[in-house]
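tool_call: predict_structure(chain=1)
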Amino acid sequence: MLVVLDLVGIFVFAITGALVAVRKDLDVFAVLVLAGTTGLGGGFIRDVLIGALPPAALADWRYLLVPVLAGVVTFYFHPALGRMERVVNVLDAAGLSLFCVTGALKALDYGLGPVPAALMGMVTGIGGGMVRDVLAGRVPLVFRGELYATPALVGALIAVLGAGAGVPAGVVAVPAVAVCFGWRVLAMRRGWHAPRAAGSAST
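tool_result:
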């Protein structure tokens, strides 16, 4: 179950990474690289930090194939995908929701406590996008006031608490994904942002 959710999340995130490369007018290699780093970056960071070695992205060929397929699809059909900006943003929210849950549950399986596991879930959700933005020369989305990391952390916490109460992973994933996804979509549609410091910091 977790593998299926992981692969779906990778595909969705990889599309968003590939779109960034296309919009930056980069070549096909860059499209595939950004697709791969966006789709696999968060899970790779998580696996290294929790000691799940080698990382799933290197141990299972499906984890490498999925972002490549997403990159190729985006490279050839980017005009249609670009016109579906809202749909892509919703898919990105779905990928965030899936990753924060699968990341948290995997961290629990490797013996982490509830709080560290929830943090690993958040890292799984936001890590790939941060690597993508750095490689593309952009300020990472999570630093621009977007409510992105917070919904991921809350979704991961719900998954962790449910798993700690003995709820099966397939069942606990539903409310955890729903809360993260719903919060993220509402934040996009209503323009919710994290607070920023008022005034200027210059002397």
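agent: The helical segments are 2-23, 28-50, 56-59, 61-83, 85-109, 114-135, 149-164, 169-190. Proceeding to next step.
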